[in-house]
Amino acid sequence: MRGQKPQLLPGEYEAGLTKRPIRIDPADSSITLELASRLHYAKAYPIEMNVKVNDIGNVAPEDLQALMMYYQEENALQTHPYSSSGFSPAVNPKGFFKKGRVFTTLDAQTFAVVRPQNGYSLCLAIDGPGTLDSDASAGGHAAVVPLGQQPPDDLVAKPIYIKVEDQSAAGSLDAMARVNFSQVHQINENVQMRNLGRVVPESIHQMEQYLNWTN
């Protein structure tokens, strides 16, 4: 609410919560919001016009532009709609190549973005069967687990969880998938790719820690 000081919860900044706060002008001076209230830009809800509601207030006029910009970045069409193969450059590279984005390229290599740059991104490869060393479960690697699935029992490092957004492309994340922290790859923003999903916020900080420890 306008007049309240924004407050981050422990670990939120490290997990990637860096967007500026959106202020709300309350409909009544008695209305308050929890300091932990958060906008979910990646999901929109259809609300019928005749639904009964309580008027909380309005987004502050000076924050409307930021609200729409963040929404468009998170919900931009990720690939060209006329690509028959499913692989194409991102329509909105700035909105697509965010920290934690996971995608597969034409050569069947899967990457996770760790540091977006201007015109390219620094990414970590996600290795699968046939590309792993015999000691891949040791230092330098961490298992990749789709959100909602159980991780392998014999892990050395805490796994990296991914929210899969394209189930048809999820085959690259089998039980042997591992993030390789030993090498950072530079991927141009015009690469032919296919969206797979994104690293969940709780795992982004873990991924960065592993990268710093390894390098």
Automatic annotation (TrEMBL):
It comes from the Eukaryota. Residues 2-68, 109-208 form the DUF6590 domain. Signal peptide: none annotated. InterPro entries: DUF6590. Pfam families: DUF6590 (PF20233). Transmembrane segments: none annotated. PANTHER family: C2H2-TYPE DOMAIN-CONTAINING PROTEIN-RELATED, DUF6590 DOMAIN-CONTAINING PROTEIN. This is DUF6590 domain-containing protein. It comes from Paraconiothyrium brasiliense.
